[in-house]
Design goal:
The complex is a heterodimer.
Chain A (H helix, E strand, L loop, with lengths): L1 H14 L8 H26 L3 H21 L3 H22 L4 H22 L3 H10 L7 H30 L1 H6 L4 H23 L4 H15 L3 H26 L3 H22 L4
Helix pairs in contact in A: 2-7, 2-9, 2-10, 2-11, 3-4, 3-5, 3-6, 3-9, 3-10, 4-5, 4-9, 7-9, 9-10, 10-11, 10-12, 11-12
Chain B lengths: L7 E12 L2 E12 L3 E5 L6 H9 L5 E8 L10 E4 L13 H9 L10 H13 L15 H13 L5 E5 L7 H17 L3 E5 L3 H7 L2 E6 L1 E7 H4 L2 H8 L4 E4 L7 E4 L5
Parallel strand pairs in B: 3-7, 3-8, 5-6, 6-7
Antiparallel strand pairs in B: 1-2, 1-4, 8-9, 10-11
The chains are: A mainly alpha, B alpha/beta.
Chain lengths: ~280, ~260
């Protein structure tokens, strides 16, 4: 595994002979972003279509509690964050399915409960606040090799997942009854989608932090809606915007000496602005 | 138009659907025969959509739904096409009509492109429905009538045995409604499926349906259109002093009026 990584690093040196790529931590940061941002952006297209931005925000914030739990229980917070995020994602989806309550309401209840739990835990352990900053704002420059490998595995997982299920996910969102007549199994698709989103959100937190993680899913997808006409171009534009923003954001943060995560999100916002202007200038129909 | 020897029949026997302790549908008996148009009428809340969902297997029920094919045509399970009333899509949604065909029928994910076969199928189906020009149109921007034809094309493409249409006339203007009726006649003549049509619009029903099922949680009546829509049955369904007036237009459609001096 270590040799694969050093191989990748050598390749990066050759392809990008720039000052900002030289330090190992910059290479890791760049890889972290290029692995998580496009995956998030790809999931973001159906997420935005099905109005689940609030859901992704809830998962992001539940990660806060997941980290607090990890520190409290003495387990590596990176992993409790993922586990707890997945738990909350599945719980929200199941409760939504069983009750007549609207999405908004169910998510709102979970969101607040989970964050309150996190704050309660932290307030007891005085030393935690410093650890948490990295999770709130993101710290891609501190990403470890283990985390990178996890992100790479996730990238492959998301690619495979979408290759097999993207059509069904979109169809389910268009009309549930119709999708079911075409053999789509609603509950299974919904839960698997929630699960994969939770995995990617918790991974992306390393790159941009809890406060901004929803941006990685929503902004590229929103930009894509401004310019894309069909489902294929919507996905590729979203992924392209994410990759571009990830790269541009890292470079900019190096030279401007700003927080990397926030700079990446600003780069994505700039892309959105460009696509919005394009759309205003060339209205459809 | 109806063939005496039916290729297949969907038999519904004593169908009951319960939700939260209340019986939404009680003891429904019906036959949907190949080559026939059956209209399902009744007031709001009568259970029409529930009956469709039961046929689709999307709602638990007691009783029997049995699909019989004539001997030569083997297999048991019916192919059911479903044309929903509307698609809740915003006009912005980046999904074209072709994409919709891809999502419904293709294994390859839509972001890796539509296969040649899917394109051909889509083009043919849309042409048959008279809307070939909508292939690349955004789904969310179609008019009520256009969307209906696209949904119809999509449902027919699978060569279904039974086609379920949920309120095909609502949301479509008068001209669109007429076009739909003509289209319906044409398709019925050259295809071999049975059609179940849920409608509030009795003019469509009297013009096209071979048989009518009148529903108000229970079976109020069923049978040939001309025999079934009597004042008594209409009153039992709609609960008011309802009458069917036949206008003296050439095609003789009827409208439902309530109250009245008669």
């Amino acid at each position: 595994m270590e040799t694969i990584l050093s191989g990748v690093f050598t390749l990066m040196d050759r392809l990008l002979p720039f000052a900002f790529v030289e330090p190992a931590f910059m290479k890791r940061a760049l890889l972290a972003l290029l692995l998580t941002a496009p995956a998030a952006a790809a999931l973001g297209v159906p997420l935005v279509q099905h109005r689940m931005a609030f859901f992704s925000d809830a998962i992001g914030h539940s990660a806060f509690t997941g980290v607090a739990l990890g520190v409290l229980l003495g387990i590596s917070p990176s992993w409790t964050m993922v586990a707890f995020g997945v738990l909350v994602a599945v719980a929200i989806t199941l409760v939504k399915g069983r009750t007549e309550l609207s999405s908004d309401t169910v998510i709102g209840v979970f969101f607040s409960t989970v964050v309150a739990l996190g704050i309660a835990i932290i307030s007891r352990e005085k030393g935690l606040t410093r650890n948490l900053q990295a999770f709130l704002y993101g710290d891609p420059l501190a990403v470890t090799d283990a985390e990178l490998l996890w992100m790479a595995a996730l990238f492959l997982l998301v690619s495979a997942y979408l290759a097999f299920l993207y059509n069904r996910i979109l169809l389910l969102g268009i009309h549930e009854g119709f999708a079911r007549t075409k053999g789509v199994r609603g509950p299974a698709v919904e839960i698997s989608f929630a699960l994969v989103v939770a995995l990617v959100v918790t991974a992306a937190i390393h790159a941009v932090g809890i406060l901004l993680v929803t941006a990685l899913l929503v902004i590229p997808a929103a930009a894509a809606r401004n310019v894309a006409r069909g489902a294929a171009s919507a996905l590729w534009v979203s992924v392209g915007v994410a990759a571009l923003s990830g790269f541009a954001g890292i470079v900019a943060s190096w030279y401007l000496d700003t927080a990397t995560g926030a700079t990446v999100v600003l780069a994505a916002a700039a892309c959105f602005a460009v696509t919005a202007l394009y759309r205003v200038a060339r209205p459809r129909e | 138009m109806t063939v005496n020897e039916h290729l297949h029949t969907l038999e519904i026997r004593n169908l009951t659907v319960r939700k939260g302790g209340v019986e939404i549908l009680s003891g429904i008996d019906a036959d949907l025969r190949c080559g026939e148009v059956t209209a399902l009428v009744g007031p709001n809340g009568a259970g029409k959509t529930t009956l469709l969902l039961a046929i689709l297997g999307q709602v638990p029920y007691t009783g029997e739904i049995h699909f019989c094919r004539a001997a030569e045509h083997g297999r048991g399970a019916p192919r059911i096409g479903y044309v929903p009333q509307r698609l809740p899509l915003d006009p912005d949604a980046p999904i074209t009509v072709l994409d919709f065909f891809v999502l419904s029928a293709q294994r390859r994910p839509v972001f890796l492109g539509a296969s040649r076969r899917t394109r051909e199928i889509a083009r043919e189906s849309l042409e048959r429905a008279g809307v070939a020009h909508l292939l690349q149109s955004p789904l969310g921007r179609l008019s009520g009538g256009e969307l209906q034809r696209v949904l119809f094309a999509l449902a027919l493409q699978d060569a279904p045995d039974i086609l379920l249409l949920d309120e095909p006339i609502s949301g479509v203007d008068v001209a669109g409604g007429e076009q739909f009726c003509d289209f319906l006649s044409k398709v019925q003549c050259d295809s071999r499926f049975s059609l179940l049509l849920v409608s509030h619009d009795l003019s469509v029903v009297t013009r096209h349906a071979d048989q009518v099922i009148c529903l108000n949680r229970r079976l109020v009546c069923s049978g040939a259109t001309t025999e079934v829509l009597t004042p008594e049955n209409l009153a039992a369904m709609y609960g008011t002093d309802a009458h069917l007036f036949r206008h003296s237009h050439a095609d003789g459609h009827g409208h439902l009026h309530d109250g009245g001096k008669r």
